[in-house]
Amino acid sequence: MIPIISIVGKSNSGKTTLIEKLVPELKSRGLKVGTIKHDVHGFELDQEGKDTWRHAQAGVDTVVISSPQKAACIKRVDAELTLDGLVCQFLSDMDIVLTEGYKRQDKPKIEIYRAELGEEPLCIDDETLIAVVSDTQTQLDAPHFGTQDIERLADFILKRFRSAGRKDVVQLFVNGRQIPMSKRFTQGIFQKTIRGMVESLKGTEGAKQVRIFIDEL
């Protein structure tokens, strides 16, 4: 199961800066890292007049731009996707996912807090809080790390989420929600059953990865 950890905090607390420091530290441990930024106000990535902008103005539901180095997707949605839904659609090949924001989601959270803001921490009585990054001690009941303790914080994350960097043979998403499949035995049943069905079909020789989407059960 892909660990999803939300970096939360008040405005100007340093969420983006923490992610900027934490990502290269995790990548130095050999992990593929994905990030998700929450924007409650809506956003626009495209530039007016560009070809992809013109595609969107024509009314397409999804526009993809691709180059030899990068690919990007802008997709219209009827309602905001859940974190599991975003990971399912866009980040299922990552070892770990960090989010900036999503304080109201039920994912494990690391709060960054700075005393100079003069406000109470965000995650008081929040059972999903797993750690605090701060320039001072707070009343929050979780391990505290200094703002420069990035290596120790990465150690803490990898110890707590031992699945990070350990690829599951099978990943299962139901209605956009990631379903834990921690037992290798269960994954093995899925793998062998699906492999047997796939190998019976023409055009599947040498298959290394299989994705199945079922819209109705």
What distinguishing features does this structure have?
217 residues, alpha/beta, Rossmann fold, 6-stranded parallel beta sheet, two-stranded antiparallel ribbon, 5 helices, 10 strands, 26% helix, globular
Provide a descriptive summary of the structure in words.
By secondary structure, this protein is of the alpha/beta class. The chain has a single domain, classed as Rossmann fold (3-Layer(aba) Sandwich). It is 26% helix and 20% strand. It is built from 5 helices and 10 strands; from the N terminus they run E-H-E-H-E-E-H-E-E-E-E-H-E-E-H. A hairpin with a 4-residue loop joins strand 3 (62-66) and strand 4. Helix 1 (15-28) crosses helix 4. The chain is globular, with a radius of gyration of 20 Å. The two termini are 23 Å apart. The mean pLDDT is 90.
Q: Quick recap of the structure?
A:
This protein has 217 residues and is α/β, with parallel strands linked by helices. It is built from five helices and ten strands. The protein has helices at 15-28, 51-57, 83-90, 150-160, 184-199; strands spanning 4-8, 33-37, 62-66, 71-75, 96-100, 109-113, 129-134, 144-145, 172-174, 177-179.
